Amino acid sequence: MKVKVGINGYGTIGKRAASAIQRMDDMEVVGVTKTKPSYEARLAIKEGFPLYAAAQENVAEFEKEEIKLAGTLTDLIPKCDVIVDATPSGIGAMYKPIYEKAGVKAIFQGGEEHGISGISFNAFANYQEAWGAQFVRVVSCNTTGLVRTLFPIDRVFGIEKAFAALVRRGADPGDKKGSALNAIEPSLKLPTHHGIDVQTIMPWLPIRTMAVVTPTTMMHVHCVTVELRKKATENDILSVWDNVPRIRFVSGKHGIKSSAQIMELARDLGRPRGDFMEIIVWQDGIKVEGNTLYYYQAIHQESDIVPEIVDCVRSMMKIETDPMRSIRKTDKAMGIGK
Ligand code: NAD
């Protein structure tokens, strides 16, 4: 029997999570919610997902547009083993008591606080922590990126301390809200929350971060500095990353010099929605001097967390004990690979 998943909030993350879950043979989407009869509501129907209004007060708007609903969220919840809550930041916390009352499991996103579940998730780093849990938070796109590269480095060489400067995209491509059109805005509250969020998964890691928001929609870029405990060469570091999932190398020498070319590569590879779910590391943009490692990585904010959501479902539903088997299964079905 397939695990039954409902998506509350069929937006940037919700629609990608729905497509990913639908590609798996051990889980299925039993419904998605929308607040308005937008193009995404029509997309959900076209994709074959039963469409539910997020709340009773939204129903009239759908009826006016003659969009057929399967009910409201209240009707969807009892049909689900797990809800993927992909509502905007902070809204998930409002839904938690509803999920709690219904006794349904829920996966929250990085826009919520760690305290919403007490478990923050990355499949390679802490798959077991979500085992059988009722509530888990899949960390944000930036935290996922930092954990994907830092966790394996820490395991093999040990990290004395780490620092990352985050160059953040101002908005997602489909958004009309976001950063100024022609300005770079530093996050003035220091250190930024990103490093602290990494510690929800790697509490032992001394990491600090700073961030600036820039007028681009194409990816975040991180400039990372790591003090290593054991000596390593650039090749040693690349070989560690080459042997773990969801990290992909690109090379400036081959013409990939910016986030724009990474996104072009995703489209050239025929990736669904032009997404890049791996963390992208410039293999010719890495340097070790003494014990200090420097590297750049790029994060496709709209999609890197999507395979993590799939693995999180498996851990919470206890359907796969081995994290690597779950990761490989997800990646194969999603066409993610080196
Ligand atoms: P989004 O705005 O693209 O999508 C949110 C969806 O929820 C929309 O369909 C919206 O209509 C719906 N919604 C709004 N209010 C609702 C309500 N009260 N009940 C039900 N549905 C409601 O947002 P997103 O970018 O997909 O972000 C969702 C979550 O994922 C946030 O926690 C965010 O921080 C996190 N996240 C976003 C990104 C990103 O770059 N977009 C990356 C990683 C994590």
Task: Outline the secondary-structure elements.
Blueprint: E1 3-8, H1 12-22, E2 27-34, H2 39-46, E3 51-53, H3 59-64, E4 71-72, H4 73-76, E5 82-85, H5 91-102, E6 105-108, E7 120-121, H6 123-126, E8 135-138, H7 141-157, E9 159-169, E10 185-186, H8 193-198, E11 207-214, E12 220-228, H9 234-242, E13 247-250, H10 259-268, E14 279-289, E15 292-299, H11 306-316, H12 323-334
Parallel strand pairs: 1-2, 1-5, 2-3, 3-4, 5-6, 6-8, 7-8, 9-11, 13-14
Antiparallel strand pairs: 9-12, 10-11, 12-15, 14-15
Bound molecules: nicotinamide-adenine-dinucleotide (NAD).
Nicotinamide-adenine-dinucleotide binds at residues 8-14, 33-35, 40, 54, 86-89, 91, 109-112, 140-141, 172, 301-302, 305.
